[in-house]
Amino acid sequence: MSGGFYCTLNRKIKAESVKKIERQMRQLVKEDLPIQQADFPVKKAAYLFNNLNQPDKVRLLRNIRKRNVTLFSLLDYYDMYAIPPLDSTDRASLFYLKYFKPGFIMVFPAWYDMSVLPDFIPQPKLARIFNEYVEWARILGIEDLGPLNATIRRGNGPEIIKVVEALHEKKIAHIADRIVKENSRVVLIAGPSSAGKTTFTKRLAIQLIVNGVKPLTISTDDYFHPHSKTPKDKWGGLDFETIGAVDVPLLNDQLLKLTCDKGVSTPRFNFVTGRRIKGRVIRGADYDLVLLEGIHCLNDALTHKIASKLKFKIYVSALTQLNIDDHNRISTTDTRMIRRIVRDTHFRGYRVQNVLQLWSRVRRGEEQNIYPLQEEADEMFNSALIYEPCVLKRFCLPIITRVKKGTAEYEEANRLSDFLNLFYDLSERDVPFNSILREFIGGSSFAY
Predict the structure, then answer these.
(1) Is 447 inside any structural domain?
(2) Which residues contact 204 (CB under 8 A, 6 or more apart)?
(3) Which one of 72, 200, 201, 202 is most buried, by most CB atoms within 10 A?
(4) To the nearest whole percent, how much of the chain has pLDDT over 90?
């Protein structure tokens, strides 16, 4: 969040305390201290962390299927890391801390340019969503991975699935109520790849119908230019991540006609031929509002002819609320990448190597076109499901273990394999047929 990690302590802190923490961090960097690593039996590691008053580590170690774990040490401090740290403190000199009540944000270089520190940009709406999901985790009694595995081991996994899905449905119903109350005519739904935008849109449509409102659902993908007019990226490939790939004039013309209760003949994009074909003939008078889904929907340039008062913007992303422990987050990017690996290899004919190779390009497009506009949304929906890695591992592990050692994708595949093996299994049989997760594992009650 805001170019870094949002951190909280187990007590309230003030801005002056954050400055003191940063000064001490910089002193450690200056001293160029070595970071050691060593393997420990799980029982011995749990005993060590119990003495260090780190109960989150003890819970985790008691609920994972491992005999040994790798611990890292700096002076007399020990910790575990999902991704190994650097080997000395002076390697981490580019950072700064920013007070952000009730904690702070540690800002550091972005993954695509490790030489530049980004500016701090407050994101209060995103912060509220994270805090909302902290409350959801409290309701479930699951703060991190240890309690989740313990709950599954006790046989209560299906109950967790039911509660999580009910929280999703309640949030979608709240968003639908707000749209109706504000008398919106065009609802714009944006989010990064594999966020679950399509299923969210279908479920939102149902909640709008419950409110007595008839929605029309369309996708910006159907307004793509033919491949002959699609912009190219710097590698010479077709760039579908830029707004220039969309026929913006046609989209605006048709949206304007629909909101004025006129008829249009919508296009449908054929991804095999790379051309648009005829879609549906639609009368605007038959619908109360339009649901438009696409990665650029928060960008006003996409719908510049539609009056702002008629638009309602929603940002959808898998903003993972579960951590491995207090010091190891589960990346929102990893959640989406695992979803995409499962969906694209099972249903779209991709090889896992292709998905991993293209992922960095997808992320670059998101950094440029989506994340800077997150705070423009009227509502945010977190599509992450606290239990989903436990289901996805059954689909993903057999795929990523096929990646051969020595290939460019092996290191990343091996990292994901280690990550997924931390979770206890859950059967997909207990996942509802309208769940966002069904968009990726199959068996959905919705047609895609």
Answers:
(1) no
(2) 172, 175, 176, 187, 189, 215, 291, 314
(3) 200
(4) 75
**CB of 334 closer than 8 Å to CB of 111:** no
> Residue 397: how many CB atoms within 10 A of its CB?
14
State how far the alpha carbon of 425 is from the alpha carbons of 351, 390, 395, 417, in Å: 24, 5, 11, 14
Cα–Cα distance, 330 to 324 (Å, whole number): 6
Within 8 A by CB and 6+ apart from 181, the residues are: none
Q: Residue 448 domain-assigned?
A: no
Q: Respond yes or no on whether the N-terminal peptide bond of residue 102 is cis (omega within 30° of 0).
A: yes
Same-domain status, 91 and 131: no
Here the tokens at position 403 are 């990646």
Q: What are the backbone angles phi and psi of residue 110, rounded to the nearest 5°?
A: -75, 155
Residue partners of 183: CB distance under 8 A and separation at least 6: none
Alpha helices in 99-196 (DSSP H): 124-140, 145-153, 157-181
Whole-angstrom Cα distance, residue 51 to residue 49? 5
| Segment among 92-101, 359-368, 376-385, 405-414 with least mean pLDDT | 359-368
Domain of residue 175, CATH code: 3.40.50.300
Give the structural domain span for 409. Answer: 125-441
Distance separating alpha carbons of residues 327 and 349, to the nearest angstrom: 37
Query: What's the pLDDT at 70?
Result: 95
The CA distance from 303 to 251, in Å, is 8
Helices (H), 31-101: 42-51, 55-61
- Alpha carbons 205 and 447: distance in angstroms, whole number: 14
Q: Would 446 be classed as within a structural domain?
A: no
| pLDDT over threshold 90, residue 361 | no
β-partners of residue 292 are 188, 218
User: Looking at the domain assignment, is residue 250 inside a domain?
Assistant: yes
Helix (H, G, I), strand (E, B) or coil at 211: coil
Concatenated DSSP letters of 334-379: HHHHHHHHHHHHHHS---HHHHHHHHHHHHHHHHHHTGGGGGG-SE
Whether the pLDDT of residue 213 is over 90: the answer is: yes
Look at residues 72, 144, 66, 153 and name the one whose alpha carbon lies nearest to residue 418: 66
